[in-house]
Specification:
Two copies of one chain form a homodimer.
Chain A lengths: L1 E8 L7 H17 L4 E3 L17 H17 L5 E8 L8 E9 L2 E7 L25 E3 L2 E7 L10 H6 L15 H8 L3 E6 L7 H16 L3 E5 L1 E4 L2 E4 L3 E3 L5 E4 L6 E8 L35 H19 L5 E4 L4 H14 L4 E5 L7 H14 L2 E4 L3 H14 L13 H30 L2 E4 L3 H6 L12 E2 L6 H12 L9 H5 L12 H4 L3 H13 L4 H8 L6 H13 L1 H5 L26
Parallel strand pairs in A: 1-2, 2-3, 7-8, 8-9, 15-16, 15-18, 16-17, 18-19
Antiparallel strand pairs in A: 1-14, 3-4, 4-5, 6-7, 9-12, 10-11, 12-13
Helix pairs in contact in A: 1-2, 6-7, 6-12, 7-8, 7-12, 9-10, 15-16, 15-17, 16-17
């Protein structure tokens, strides 16, 4: 006995209620044409995920209800399971549930309300939703009963702040708490198949965790699990899709590709159930699952780790740019590895003709920087122009020399070392900020979005100039540590379309080139030391003392650790004013890590 | 029969566990010296409120426990009620409660765990804490029993997304839900007095709401209520203190001043209770409340509405600057009302010697702008310098003329109107951004924080230049609508220390002066129309259509409303990169309003 399940892995447009409804109906038709017995969508399909504070607007929730109504009216005998924000307080205050509607024959036949509302990491669902308490209704398709649940509901016991820090380990019983997943109750009620609607953002390694959870559930309960996730970028999140199906033994029998829209069907074997006749489901009344004798399923392999990160960055960038109404981007090219990586990602995301590289040398820029940037642009086939910042640098230095005690660029060296350091810092930041002004002027003049190029390591320690190199709309590699930037570039160069990132950019010592002979390692420890420290402090939420303990093995001493963790703390004000960028780790900056700026904890 | 209650309204330093412990012990000693029978502190006293994701660091929670231990050891027979994050999962995962410790005779004698965890508006407590379920233990002081609760616990039934939008109405039964406040159970257990620890941020009119809640509780239950709140600025929140006491009839008998640290005592009359002997309290075992025959209490009047807002802005600014280790600020002075207001607030906050006004005229600046700015600086007694932006403007215009198709400043007018508009916008933004670069250079050179000057109206509709006038550390009037800025300036001028804001700045038409003869009302509707539209759309969470309906009465037509609401939507990316500023309304930008940038909802 088999059910042909349609999986609709869509790139929804957040808040586009009518557009999403059209997309949902088209996907429904496509799956039905493929012979689906039921079509499953992702979490909050109608709105896209996550709608954030749009949910506080009653008109938004009302609009979502109307869109769902239109979708339901479109359905025939094949049920569609569609996510939507459910408001049952029409005459009183808004009371919302994160729900899945079972639609068929022109109407909503049943609704499941999400039980477990994640409120950790990037999730704020308890800000908007009340928890559901009913495991049913089950969805009946001919003689087969389906249990419907939403995302976290599959994962099991409520997760605490500790799980939040971890984001995504396997379901584990915390403090001896009972497993509260509605899946258990559904199987007890007679469900022969579990379908789960997800809005699950990407991070490295996430798919393996998801499949482990589903496999554990399926094999423990002896029922297949269908997991459907959305795809595409939404501000600081990127969704990888990777929808999949396990059989009743916990084997993954179907997997849709990561980061790609797809509507597919999968024939899922289900065991007969003695409960079926007794169940009070309001689902479809079709006679039984289609069975044309052929096996329909696709089992796309998971991406290799570096490929996966690259695709995440490409899709996040493409969607941020296009969904916000732009076609083209500008990238400041220094000849270094970070800006080279961002330009290469943008070229893959938007096509090289839509990427405009800008080299902005200063009086301190090496010849190599200019030629490496030009070589990169030639390799990628992107636009390229050079604008020397010297005239503005000279003008501003002169203005400040007169009015602000000099900057170190146009004035005599100061006698006092602290004064000299302040002058030097001022001059370095001016150069970076002139570049920010130039890129934004190109943006205003030509309608290009500016991509920023800071990696996670320098974003962590504040090795950036606010309103300078942080100026732009989207911070493509904000969550990518420096060493991973190198790995990604090397991986991209191996992909068979020739050298993308010039070898010189991969091998020369990193430098901001804001003063003569500057190199990153004059201000920062080597990245081989720094990256693990930052990861332990930021992603691991360790204290400085705990990092010292952990870092001893890597050769970092206590002074260095304390210097680095202090840098991370005091850079919070810069991060708060920096653009969003896609999350690829278990803890990115942004809503994933909500640290006070004013903070005395050391 | 009376209890002398000590109220410790402190300006805590967030995360300074040792420093806060010292402050708490000093306040305890002070209240004991005043004859207090019990000393009550604010919510999460040991950490300061809100600690945000510091709570995810186990070392932070452990440090808070150690600090509490030290405080408890310091106590004598007079109990102290101190807020702290309680972790009872020492050997396993972190499990936190938002708790109040009852400390006396050198140890923690009992702990109350907060029941109702706000997760709306600026609050994220369900991200960190588990809800308490016990109403006790009661705190026994001689023959009197006290019920201890934390903040929201006093307010009653759980509040939903709707209450979130409202933030702070009176306790109302939502959807017929039962009142779940532990106060009821505590009175049933024999509590003769309720003490409530708060971390309640300021907004306009908040104190009247708080007192209404406490008065309703007190008179309904027939017991006095003691409400203690912290004071001071913490990033985008400012706490007003305004701690108070009601008698058993619901009359406010004690009120501490708003926005000022204070330790005070209040003699609170309590009715005898037959439950007292039977109660299993672990509190103090003092023989009875002190009663020296004199009445100790202070009933500070509430501030007038404009005075209250002004103090909120002054305290928020002072604390942001000083708690982040700075003494001085720079403010760009345009001669307009907004920058004048910010400079005047800064002068009141930090002293005029610590405020540095900078006039940065462009080729389009009127003579009036320069003289008004100079007059303001003279009125306030702050530093003043003038830096013409012309050299940098000319240099950048020339660079872009060569490399980017002109800016409208240095090149021939374009034939295509769209092209001309882009060139004009580019040139306007360049001027604003040069000013941002100059202010940041002064910041780097002299160690001044930069204050930005955008009001809530222009922040809403995006009438700002990102990295230009939005560049700076703290956005003092970000939550103050334009018309309220005028009212505040006029109020400040009436305070008896002479004219602060020049009359010309109050009366001339607002202008950005970024092109010849520019005035705000060429781009925006009059503020008398605009402010109510923005309030309805942002604070009221109405849809554009609903705003049209509401606005018809004020003379705004549908086209105008749709234009304005669209401007608010598309300015989200600018707000996301703008500095924090103090919240004074029921919905400010920042963590109070979490809107997607990529957003198709119209």
């Amino acid at each position: 006995m088999a059910v042909r399940v349609g999986l609709a892995q869509l790139n929804l447009r957040l808040g586009d209620l009518d557009g999403n409804a059209d997309m949902i109906m088209a996907a429904y038709d496509e799956a039905v044409a493929l012979g689906a017995d039921v079509v499953v969508f992702s979490e909050l399909t109608v709105t896209g995920y996550p709608p954030e504070d749009l949910l506080l607007k009653p008109a938004f929730v009302e609009g979502a209800s109307l869109a769902l109504e239109r979708i339901a009216q479109h359905t025939g005998s094949v049920p569609a399971v569609v996510g939507f924000p459910e408001d049952t307080g029409r005459t009183g205050p808004v009371r919302l549930w994160n729900s899945a509607a079972m639609c068929s024959d022109g109407a909503v036949r049943g609704v499941f309300r999400k039980h477990l509302l994640p409120n950790y990491a990037v999730f704020d669902e308890q800000r908007y939703f009340l928890p559901g308490t009913e495991a049913g209704p089950l969805l009946q398709i001919g003689g087969v009963q389906l249990g419907v649940s939403v995302c976290e509901d599959l994962w099991g016991p409520p997760r605490t702040a500790d799980a939040a820090a971890d984001d995504g380990g396997l379901p584990s019983v915390v403090g001896g708490e009972a497993d509260t997943s509605p899946a258990l109750a559904q199987v007890a009620m007679g469900a022969q198949l579990l379908v789960n609607l997800n809005g699950s953002p990407y991070r490295r390694g996430k798919q393996a965790d998801r499949e482990a959870v589903a496999r554990t559930r399926a094999s423990a309960l002896g029922v297949p699990v269908v997991y459907v996730n959305q795809v595409g970028g939404q501000d600081e999140l990127v969704f990888d899709g990777s929808s999949f199906v396990t059989d009743a033994g916990g084997n993954v029998v179907c997997r849709l590709p990561a980061f790609v829209e797809q509507v597919a069907v999968c024939d899922v074997a289900v065991a007969p159930s003695e409960h079926a006749a007794a169940a009070g489901s309001r689902g479809s009344t079709r006679a039984g699952p289609a069975g044309d004798g052929t096996s329909h399923s696709v089992l796309t392999p998971m991406l290799e780790p570096l490929d996966e990160v690259w695709q995440a960055l490409v899709v996040a960038t493409r969607d941020y740019v296009r969904k916000n109404g732009f076609t083209d981007v500008a990238v400041g090219l220094s000849g270094g590895i970070d800006s080279s990586a961002v330009a290469a990602i943008a070229a893959d995301a938007l096509g090289p003709a839509h990427v405009h590289g800008v080299s902005m040398p200063s009086r301190y820029s090496s010849e190599g920087s200019r030629t490496d940037a030009a070589q990169l642009a030639a390799n990628l086939g992107i636009g390229f122009r050079t604008v020397s910042i010297e005239p503005a640098h000279a003008a501003l230095a002169g203005m400040l020399d007169t009015h602000a005690g000099g900057t170190g660029a146009a004035s005599e060296p100061a006698d006092d070392p602290a004064d000299a350091a302040a002058a030097d810092l001022t001059d370095q930041n001016i150069q970076s900020r002139i570049r920010g002004v130039l890129l934004m002027a190109l943006s205003n003049r030509h309608g290009w979005l500016v991509l920023t190029t800071g990696n996670k390591t320098e974003t962590s320690v504040g090795y950036t100039t606010l309103y300078g190199d942080t100026a732009g709309a989207y911070a493509v590699i904000r969550d990518v540590p420096k060493l991973l930037v190198y790995e990604l570039c090397e991986w991209r160069n191996r992909q068979g379309d020739g050298e993308r990132i010039p070898q010189a950019s991969l091998t020369k010592p990193p430098s901001a080139e804001l003063r003569p002979d500057q190199r990153d390692d004059q201000s920062l420890p080597p990245y081989e030391l720094l990256d693990p420290l930052v990861e332990a402090y930021v992603e691991g939420d360790l204290s400085a003392a705990e990092v010292v303990e952990a870092a001893g093995r890597h050769g970092a001493d206590a002074d260095l650790v304390h210097r680095v963790t202090r840098l991370v703390d005091i850079a919070e004000y810069k991060r708060r004013q920096s653009p969003p960028g896609p999350r690829i780790t278990a803890k990115s900056f942004g809503k994933d890590r909500r640290m006070p700026i004013t903070n005395f904890f050391r």
